[in-house]
């Protein structure tokens, strides 16, 4: 298990280096920041000066090396727009996004898995049919639209919950649930099909042939085997949720990383984009690492590889 | 009309015999294809008897219904299959009439099962010890020290090396032959009287196969077990079994003691199968031989004897009427050749 984690950590570092290169190059492909910073009547000299002061007159690879060197000192550069350290801006927004995505992830699992189990156990019944129909709706309707409808119902009509902003627990419910809908549907479907797949497996029949009760076979053996594909889905789902959070944050006016990134891309604030994307990928990689560890805990075959 | 006559005849012959340890009577099991909804009559009126301490081999080509017969007895059919008729009596109790809860009480304690592929038989996520402890806890009420003692004893009985280590290991850490021994130890943990083994040695290496067969034979003797071995391998059947049941197209076409089956096979199908075995033995087995033609489609109604289209001794009656079972010497065959009057 120890060497397994070390290997994963090494891969994580490689991934972060790759992400840095891609985001660095892509951010600069989006256009020249100088035109956004200077008045329209700026002279050639003004442009040269500001490019020099930002280090943009250097070749791309020199810029990148400087960036990497600075990052190793914990310096992601200054926001071009706000003139404060980019990392400070990003870090200020992180708790809100982490709270939103992790809540949505948690809801997806806690609601999705039991629904999948119920649907599998009562396959082809009314409850199975209902759960699956709602899941198809949940996966096919755009979540910003669902978000708006939920605001209309729970905030405007019923006035049970606040419509936007971040505050107490009540502010979290609508955005987290909206973001989680896709995850609930995805996890429910994989849990259902994976559990049904177990039913005709030899090991389940052998357990029955030992005279064990159906309940023990289900809860101890089948569920644990069925959860492996669900874990695999969780990694993809997390990336999906962080991407989805950008939109949901806009709908619910949630002060998270998503709105900051959108603003920075539009303003070509390279240091902020870089800091936000790299930090997000570190977050994602750490979450995926914990999923890999969870794999190892559930499945001895992976533990010993 | 003739079908009904035949079945009636079978029933009367059966009920005159003294009660057997296991008595399967006119068993019928169907598989419904999930896609097309077609119904395959996988087991179509199979009857046989098994006495205590004997080993019955069910042989036949793949798809003849031998595995479905086995799964029907312990009532562990796949979801797509179900038994639609007949009786399965274990010491006079009809297993097919039991509620699922009552049937579950018999599994492990009276009837046990060994599957074809040991790699697929055990739960990959739990240790050998964990899976061996389950039947002992449930049926024998063992725990703690006595449980561990009993587990080690069982593993030793199945000639499993370093049993202490095995208890801590996971299925993927053991070889196929070793795993099949472990499966045997788990299946027999709660002292069942009847063990059904579906192709127990097919997934094993030849040398390991022989050892496993010897092991089963020894266990049968020491525990007075009754065994049903489902196999397509006549070598396995000859080595281990007391009686042979040959199946074709979902029916039992021949039943006889093992020597009789090999010395004087009755049914033309058995004769053809044995000829193939002998042929492939003499030229080293690298020559692939088959019986001409193919088995009938079991989702279509069959008129007459199902083997008739491939049979070298075909008579006019064979195409029209399904042969009943005729007693011949020590065995029985469902073939018109043994009728005094058929032409």
From TrEMBL, chain A:
<keyword id="KW-0812">Transmembrane</keyword>
<feature type="transmembrane region" description="Helical">
    <location>
        <begin position="226"/>
        <end position="252"/>
    </location>
</feature>
<dbReference type="InterPro" id="IPR035906">
    <property type="entry name" value="MetI-like_sf"/>
</dbReference>
<feature type="transmembrane region" description="Helical">
    <location>
        <begin position="142"/>
        <end position="160"/>
    </location>
</feature>
<dbReference type="InterPro" id="IPR000515">
    <property type="entry name" value="MetI-like"/>
</dbReference>
<feature type="transmembrane region" description="Helical">
    <location>
        <begin position="172"/>
        <end position="191"/>
    </location>
</feature>
<feature type="domain" description="ABC transmembrane type-1">
    <location>
        <begin position="94"/>
        <end position="291"/>
    </location>
</feature>
<protein>
    <submittedName>
        <fullName>ABC transporter permease</fullName>
    </submittedName>
</protein>
<dbReference type="Pfam" id="PF19300">
    <property type="entry name" value="BPD_transp_1_N"/>
</dbReference>
<dbReference type="InterPro" id="IPR045621">
    <property type="entry name" value="BPD_transp_1_N"/>
</dbReference>
<feature type="transmembrane region" description="Helical">
    <location>
        <begin position="272"/>
        <end position="298"/>
    </location>
</feature>
<comment type="similarity">
    <text>Belongs to the binding-protein-dependent transport system permease family.</text>
</comment>
<dbReference type="GO" id="GO:0005886">
    <property type="term" value="C:plasma membrane"/>
</dbReference>
<feature type="transmembrane region" description="Helical">
    <location>
        <begin position="9"/>
        <end position="30"/>
    </location>
</feature>
<keyword id="KW-1003">Cell membrane</keyword>
<dbReference type="Pfam" id="PF00528">
    <property type="entry name" value="BPD_transp_1"/>
</dbReference>
<feature type="transmembrane region" description="Helical">
    <location>
        <begin position="100"/>
        <end position="121"/>
    </location>
</feature>
<keyword id="KW-1133">Transmembrane helix</keyword>
<keyword id="KW-0813">Transport</keyword>
<dbReference type="GO" id="GO:0071916">
    <property type="term" value="F:dipeptide transmembrane transporter activity"/>
</dbReference>
<keyword id="KW-0472">Membrane</keyword>
């Amino acid at each position: 298990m120890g060497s397994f984690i070390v290997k994963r950590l090494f891969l994580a570092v490689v991934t972060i280096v790759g992400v840095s290169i891609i985001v660095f190059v892509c951010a600069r492909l989006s256009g020249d920041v100088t035109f956004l910073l200077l008045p329209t009547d700026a002279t050639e000299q003004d442009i040269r000066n500001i490019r020099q002061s930002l280090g943009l007159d250097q070749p791309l690879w020199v810029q990148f090396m400087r960036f990497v060197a600075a990052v190793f000192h914990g310096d992601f550069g200054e926001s071009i727009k706000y003139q404060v350290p980019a990392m400070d801006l990003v870090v200020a927004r992180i708790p809100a996004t982490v709270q939103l995505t992790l809540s949505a992830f948690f809801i997806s699992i806690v609601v999705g898995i039991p629904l999948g189990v119920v649907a599998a156990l009562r396959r082809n019944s009314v409850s199975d049919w209902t759960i699956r129909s709602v899941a198809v709706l949940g996966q096919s309707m755009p979540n910003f639209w669902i978000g708006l409808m939920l605001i209309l119902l729970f905030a405007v009509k019923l006035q049970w919950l606040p419509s936007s902003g971040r505050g107490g627990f009540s502010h979290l419910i609508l955005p987290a649930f909206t973001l989680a809908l896709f995850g609930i549907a995805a996890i429910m479907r994989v849990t259902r099909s994976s559990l049904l797949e177990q039913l005709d497996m030899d090991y389940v029949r052998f357990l029955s042939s030992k005279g064990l009760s159906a309940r023990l076979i289900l809860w101890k053996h089948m569920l644990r085997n069925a959860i492996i594909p669900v874990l695999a889905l969780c990694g993809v789902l997390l990336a999906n949720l962080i991407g989805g959070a950008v939109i949901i944050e806009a709908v619910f006016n949630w002060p998270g990383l998503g709105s900051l990134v959108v603003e920075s891309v539009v303003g070509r604030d390279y240091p902020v984009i870089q800091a936000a994307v790299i930090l997000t990928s570190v977050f994602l990689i750490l979450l995926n690492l914990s999923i890999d560890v969870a794999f190892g805990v559930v499945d001895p075959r992976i533990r010993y590889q | 009309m003739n079908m009904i006559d035949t079945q009636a005849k079978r029933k009367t012959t059966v009920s005159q015999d003294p009660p057997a340890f296991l008595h399967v009577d006119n068993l019928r099991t169907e598989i419904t294809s999930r896609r097309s909804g077609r119904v395959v009559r996988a087991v179509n009126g199979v009857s046989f008897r098994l006495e205590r301490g004997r080993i019955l081999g069910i042989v036949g080509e793949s798809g003849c219904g031998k595995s479905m017969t086995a799964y029907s007895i312990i009532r562990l059919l796949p979801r797509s299959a179900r038994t639609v008729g007949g009786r399965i009596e274990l010491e006079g109790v009809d297993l097919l009439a039991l509620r699922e809860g009552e049937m579950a009480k018999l599994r492990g304690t009276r009837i046990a099962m060994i599957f074809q592929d040991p790699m697929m038989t055990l739960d990959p996520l739990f240790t050998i010890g964990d899976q061996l402890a389950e039947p002992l806890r449930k049926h024998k009420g063992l725990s703690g020290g006595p449980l561990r003692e009993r587990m080690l004893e069982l593993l030793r009985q199945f000639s499993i090396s370093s049993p202490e280590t095995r208890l801590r290991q996971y299925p993927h850490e053991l070889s196929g032959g070793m795993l099949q021994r472990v499966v045997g130890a788990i299946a027999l943990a709660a002292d069942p009287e009847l063990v059904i083994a579906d192709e127990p040695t097919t997934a094993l290496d030849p040398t390991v196969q022989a050892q496993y067969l010897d092991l089963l034979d020894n266990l049968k003797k020491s525990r007075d077990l009754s065994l049903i071995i489902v196999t397509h391998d006549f070598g396995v059947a000859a080595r281990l079994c007391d009686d042979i049941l040959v199946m074709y197209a979902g029916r039992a076409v021949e039943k006889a003691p093992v020597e009789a089956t090999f010395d004087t096979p009755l049914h033309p199908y058995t004769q053809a199968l044995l000829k193939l075995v002998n042929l492939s033995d003499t030229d080293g087995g690298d020559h692939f031989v088959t019986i001409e033609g193919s088995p009938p489609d079991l989702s279509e109604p069959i008129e007459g004897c199902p083997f008739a289209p491939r049979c070298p001794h075909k008579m006019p009656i064979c195409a029209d009427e399904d042969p009943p079972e005729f007693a011949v010497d020590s065995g029985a065959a469902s073939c018109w050749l043994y009728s005094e009057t058929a032409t």
